[in-house]
Amino acid sequence: MKMYKLMLGLVLAGLVSLSAQAIEQRDYHKDVIGKDCKSCHDQGVKNYPSDQACLQCHDVDELAEETARSEEDKWQNPHNNLHYGKELPCIECHGEHKAKKPICSNCHTFKYDKHKE
Amino acid sequence: MSNKDLLGRRNFIKGMGAAAGVAMAAPALAVSESANGVKWDKEVEVLIIGSGFAGLAAAIEATRKGAKDVHIFEKMSYFGGNSAINGGLFAAPDTPMQKQEGVKDSVDTMVADQLAAGRGIADEALLRHVAEHAVEALQMTLDAGSEYHPYLQQLGGHSVARTYQTTVSCGAGITQPLLQECRKLGVHTHNRAKFDGFILDEKGGVVGVKMREGYYFDKPESGELVRIKARRGVIMATGGFAQNINMRMAQDPTLTAEVGCTNAPGATGEGMFEMFRLGAVPVHLAHIQSGPWASPDEGGFGYVSNYSIYNFPHSIAIDRLTGKRFMNEIADRKTRADAELNCRDAQGNALPPILITSYEDSKQHPNTKKVLKYNVGWKFDSIDALAKHFEVPLAPLKKQIAEYNEYVKTQSDPQFGKNMTEAKGKFIQAPFTVVRLWPKVHYCQGGVQINTKAEVKDSLTGKPISGLYAAGEVCGGIHGVSRLGSCSIPECMVMGMTAARIMMQA
């Protein structure tokens, strides 16, 4: 019985790591997070990461500085935008395993060249 | 209009549905339950559902009237609802800016303008109540830090200039300051919280709600169910249903998924429908308004809408098939949207009309830079270049512009009866800026019936449903057939404030 459990455990672990290998992941996340799904999926692996998950490592103010635009287009800053300020949850625009369009593209034609779509 | 026309419209809009984010999962079944034996998970004093203009104004006013424990619940991950992505246009009579600009206006005049657009079925008492308190609501936004352009605009259907617009030309210039004000006042704001039905006492009054916390909009069954008691009552500020394709097609089968929509994806109406299930009176649900200022070259409200709204008074709208004007550019929204939908090529396919403005005048509005920069509007140095680009017959276009410029001079438009006051001295001359126009679904005039106390009437008893208030687009019948532009923000805010005042008095 004990052996069986151990085997099952090994098989499951193999499956988990297999699926972790198969999924899309940003290189810099691979380095820092590796295959530990739960470090982002804090609400269970089947659920989206919570709105706080990314903030363990990322700072909204810093992101807003990095993506700041010229005075004329300052409200197009995705991390400090006209409609929602700094409060828009990350997953509205970012998908780690599946590329996503930014929410702005619902209504606007301006582009974010570095955003992975 | 023939079926062929409708097909043309569909084909034209095809592909825009995805951009406008109209896909929608079926809402889960919510239903009311009895408070008898309920185990309450939480208790609050004032419970507000929805975080647009109405919900935010209600929360601030309730706090000012002494409420200590006010909670706003928002189903989306972000706050502001549809209010955060509209034009930020606010109409009010007898304002400081009207005095400054020498505009003579009154509550009566504003109500009369709205009654005319309502085509005989608007609710005069409610329109009057809102007009009487509009300046108070405007003041609430100013106190919270909203900033407005230093000039008034005269929007379609309004007999005078009475519309303020935020400096960011967006409702977010109001929702963001109001949201921050709420937080400053200690209002509790909860996102990803989906209303899931009322909880009723033995007399059928609303004493609480079911709520799913941790709700994800793209996962309809998500969230943990909690039961929340509301000591003073529940204010429904849940908005319209313009993004609910099934519901809007049930009212108007031409409003398919392929027709563009300016609304936030959350405008799906479950709060409204749950009130109907409770017994609220449905009013004017089939009156769904399309915005005549929208562009087929971008999704949603985009940049063009505000560009057009600002420029219509001193611009000409041209049918590209004829090279002639086809409407009063500042008629009410329905008149213009209907006229635009008739602009078609010889085969009956949609041929979006163009709005021509002198750059000299259009450049006064900040959005002009944006529409040019992001290729949703274009600049031309001559009529010839413009006509060639849009394949408009040149001779009739030149003749039309010359005729219209006469109307500017004489301050009278015999062609379509446009009020030329705001066009004074603004001749159509090179260089020009041009955008294309095509209506998008924008606003639901229909909803639950309320009275001037924001109470929701029961269809069987004719009496208000105890503990229940509603404010904003979720309410119906106020504007009748066609709501005038910039009249929703004052209505949302005044009725939100009213709901809070009445609730705090009760």
From TrEMBL, chain A:
SUPFAM superfamilies: Multiheme cytochromes. Residues 34-109 form the Tetrahaem cytochrome domain. InterPro entries: Multihaem_cyt_sf (IPR036280), Tetrahaem_cytochrome (IPR012286). It is found in: Periplasm. It comes from Shewanella nanhaiensis. Pfam families: Cytochrom_c3_2 (PF14537). This is Cytochrome c3 family protein. Keywords: Electron transport, Heme, Iron, Metal-binding, Periplasm, Signal, Transport.
Automatic annotation (TrEMBL), chain B:
Coiled coil: none annotated. The lineage of its organism: Bacteria, Pseudomonadati, Pseudomonadota, Gammaproteobacteria, Alteromonadales. Keywords: FAD, Flavoprotein, Oxidoreductase, Signal. This is Flavocytochrome c. Transmembrane segments: none annotated. Residues 46-489 form the FAD-dependent oxidoreductase 2 FAD-binding domain. Its cofactor is FAD. Residues 1-30 form the signal peptide. Belongs to the FAD-dependent oxidoreductase 2 family. FRD/SDH subfamily. The keyword Oxidoreductase applies. InterPro entries: FAD-dep_OxRdtase_2_FAD-bd (IPR003953), FAD-oxidoreductase_2 (IPR050315), FAD/NAD-bd_sf (IPR036188), Flavocytochrome_c (IPR010960), Succ_DH/fumarate_Rdtase_cat_sf (IPR027477), TAT_signal (IPR006311). It is found in: Cell envelope.
